[in-house]
Write a structure and sequence with these properties.
61% helix; 3 helices; 85 residues
Length: 85
Amino acid sequence: MWTSACIHEFEMCIARLTAATGFPLSWVDNPEWITFLNKFLPGAPIVTRRSLTARIIPDLVKDFRSQAKTKAEGHNGIFQADCWT
């Protein structure tokens, strides 16, 4: 049974997998992937490119920011960025 918590965790894993592998966002719309999901993970939510960009990735970024702020609280740090971008 896919509870809302399980769906949320699945979506976060798909977003992290997308980033970790360097896959284009369109991979989640690939018919082979959808066939794989339907065959081996029946009832799994179908994550779309739109849901990744509009909701899932922004939620994941919020989580990462919150974790980073918590871990950095009370510590000194240096931030560096190049001026080319």
